[in-house]
Design goal:
six-stranded parallel sheet, UDP-glycosyltransferase activity, alpha/beta, Rossmann fold, UDP_glucos_trans, 13 strands, UDP_glycos_trans_CS, 2 domains, seven-stranded parallel sheet, Glycosyltransferase_28
């Protein structure tokens, strides 16, 4: 059995899929240890293995609060503190993780695509490693727009030119991280590296988004595997207390970072009240009691709800486009209305629209009337309902956490890249080691 180091950004949207994966590996007889700043320990909490704190000087307890504040208010110059935070964390991990892995006799590393330290340290130590896309896959594809844009898929010459321009902007924005990667690669004796792509695993690269919910990708390496959502298995929670009669249920969530946007929740509540829909809101602990009570139409408002279980009863999910909520809705065959706020949410919304799974509305031009009209259009659309069922069926065959565990075990067993048996766009659940 193997001992895996998990290296992941300290935010719940990235941690939760990795906790599901680590728990499955532990159930299979392996060991798992999460390495990171002290504030991560509360989230890990023994759910999927143990925890080892790093960065006691540079990332002491309380550091995550300031990082979360930057993430919750991005946009404009707000991106620069976020990118600086990312670079500082990578610096810390590259400095401290190698010795920590040696001391705890780690056999392999499982790393989030957005934390390059995992790949750099694994290469330095000569360990096999697997990268996981807990957000949109970062692997650059010239036929796709950059993941920070809401541009539609456009393989025309004009679209490809726009993509190239977008990637030039992306390279400028990512300069702090590129400089950190290059410096740490030299220090760790790895030669020239300078991008997140350079730190992806040559053994196996797992993605949660499946081809049916993505733009068409060109020249996908055979080590890329679309596993679908990484979720814990087991019985779903009872959500009868969240349902009200036979009214169609709408679930609204803006994730754990943006859940304090009471004005946006108010507009959603008004539109659902106008249409006679039952609304359940999850705000991630970001609304106070007064704000929650002020929302019109008597919605059920909670900090957290059993999302997967509730979505099984939902007619529609309204979200800012966080990948985990989108994947959970898609797996439950629930159409989506996305109101992007930040980061890759516009890009995810563009993919949902491209896949025919729902609609997207810009936040700055959102009105009660426009929301109501769009909700009604989605609920009345037989085409969207059909696409939702088709995508859910594809996700069910992708394998999820079981497929991910099988791939990771094959990498550890053979020490070689794990190759998909056929192109990712037509891949079945069959698995074959290289």
């Amino acid at each position: 059995m193997s001992h895996f180091a998990f290296v992941v950004p300290p935010f719940l949207g990235h941690l939760n899929p990795m906790l599901a994966l680590s728990a499955a590996l532990v159930e299979a007889g392996h060991r798992a240890t999460f390495f990171g700043m002290a504030d991560m320990e509360a989230a890990v909490g023994g759910q999927g293995g143990s925890f080892t704190g790093l960065g006691g000087i540079t990332h002491p307890p309380g550091r995550l609060a300031s990082m979360t504040a930057h993430m919750a208010a991005p946009g404009g110059f707000g991106l620069f503190p976020i990118l600086a935070d990312m670079a500082r964390t990578t610096d810390m991990l590259c400095a401290e993780l190698p010795e920590a892995c040696r001391a705890r006799r780690v056999d392999g590393i499982i790393t989030d695509q957005l934390e390059p330290a995992g790949g750099l340290v694994a290469a330095h130590l000569g360990l096999p490693f697997v990268s996981v896309a807990n957000a949109l896959p970062i692997r650059r594809d010239p036929t796709l727009p950059p993941p920070f844009t809401d541009w539609p898929y456009d393989p025309s010459p004009q679209g490809l030119r726009r993509n190239r321009g977008g990637y030039r902007v992306a390279d400028l924005l990512m300069w702090p991280m590129a400089r950190t990667i290059a410096r740490q690669a030299r220090r760790l004796g790895l030669g020239k590296r300078g991008s997140l792509d350079d730190c992806l695993s040559p053994f196996a690269d797992l993605t949660q988004i499946i081809p049916a919910l993505d733009f068409p990708r060109s020249d996908v390496p055979p080590t890329v595997h679309a596993c679908g959502p990484l979720r814990r298995t087991g019985p779903l929670d009872d959500v009868e207390d969240l349902r009200r009669g036979d009214r169609p249920l709408v679930f609204a969530s803006l994730g754990t970072l943006q859940g304090g946007r009471v004005d946006l929740f108010r507009r959603i509540a008004e539109a659902c009240a106008d249409l006679g829909l039952h609304l359940v809101i999850a705000h991630g602990g970001r609304l106070n009691a007064t704000e929650a009570a002020s929302l019109p139409g008597s919605p059920i408002v909670r900090a957290f709800v059993p999302q997967q279980a509730l979505l099984r009863h939902a007619a529609l999910a309204i979200t800012n486009g966080g990948l985990n909520t989108v994947l959970d809705a898609a797996a439950a065959a629930v159409p989506l209305l996305i109101v992007p706020i930040a980061f890759e949410q516009g890009a995810i919304a563009a993919r949902v629209v491209h896949a025919g799974l729902g609609r997207s509305l810009p936040r700055r031009r959102l009105t009660r009337q426009r929301l109501s009209q769009t909700i009604r259009e989605i609920l009345d659309s037989a085409d969207i309902a059909g696409r939702a069922r088709s995508i859910a069926a594809s996700m069910a065959t992708a394998g999820g956490v079981s497929a991910a565990v099988a791939i990771i075990e094959a990498v550890m067993r053979t020490g070689h890249p794990f190759m998909q048996p056929e192109p990712m766009s037509s891949r079945s659940a069959r698995l074959r080691p290289a």
